[in-house]
């Protein structure tokens, strides 16, 4: 028996992409919550958003932040998906992108991706990056077809606080006066800074630094899913991880190719939650130090 779909069927003429408005956030959050719930739980993984309210709150923040360019896809005037581009630094980050589960695999995702990639080209970003769920065949294929290369295998890791300050370190909240030193460190490791994100994190009070011999050797915007961290060496980064009161969201994203750091996390009680992949288009330098990417890159 045929089942009736609630969603209009998209085709290349009916799908319209337009800038997101703040009042779209509740519907985009609902779609996002459902889409991530469905893809994650159908593969046996926990959802990225604990509820639709959390997803809507995130979309409200993204749609009202001047550092993000966000778009929605509409079919017959109804919102069927959304995507965002983080424009806070010289490398743009994509996501979260979601399409209504009822009409996935009908090219809406491709259009939402093309919209933010066109924007990145127009604004002359040196590169565009994203992180995808490694078990999601469709997103992996779509991004590869759009020119993104697989760079890093990531393990999302979560667990109780390690609560051990290693000898020789001082860990403290980051302040605006740390910004230059943190940006220099990020540039030395990645070839670019992430000043826009770090400035926001300092304002929100989530950023931390680890000092060794009185100078900053590592910083984190947030120890968790939505934050990134950079260290000169693994022990520098470990000082931050080992003193974090908790790991926010689904957890920290650990590049598993950094075998020493990955094993240290395992030995200190963190468990692997899910696999993810860092993908990049445009400028990319192999990192020259220790780092944890955010869920954007
Ligand atoms: C990921 C997502 C946004 C993609 O949107 P979509 O509308 O379903 O995808 P599209 O139809 O535009 O594109 C899928 C592409 O992958 C291809 N594809 C799908 N499954 C594939 C497979 N197993 N192997 C190879 N290619 C595959 C399709 O043919 C299509 O390619 P084409 O554009 O060249 O024809 C959407 O599926 C979604 O919301 N998923 C759940 C949430 C999520 O995972 N978001 C991404 C976070 S990184």
What would your notes on this structure say?
The structure is a single chain. This protein is α+β, with helices and mostly antiparallel strands. It folds into 2 domains: 136 residues, 3-Layer(aba) Sandwich (Aminopeptidase); 136 residues, Aminopeptidase (3-Layer(aba) Sandwich). It has 8 helices and 14 strands. A hairpin with a 2-residue loop joins strand 9 and strand 10. Helix 1 crosses helix 2. The model has no long low-confidence stretch (mean pLDDT 95). The site of coenzyme A has 23 residues, from helix 1, strand 5, helix 3, strand 6 and helix 4.
What is this structure's SSE topology?
Blueprint: E1 15-19, H1 25-42, H2 52-64, E2 68-75, E3 78-86, E4 91-94, E5 98-99, H3 108-122, E6 127-133, H4 137-145, E7 149-158, E8 169-173, H5 179-190, H6 195-204, E9 208-212, E10 215-220, E11 229-231, H7 234-241, E12 252-255, H8 259-267, E13 271-282, E14 290-292
Parallel strand pairs: 4-6
Antiparallel strand pairs: 1-2, 2-3, 3-4, 3-5, 6-13, 7-12, 7-13, 8-9, 9-10, 10-11, 11-14
This protein binds coenzyme A.
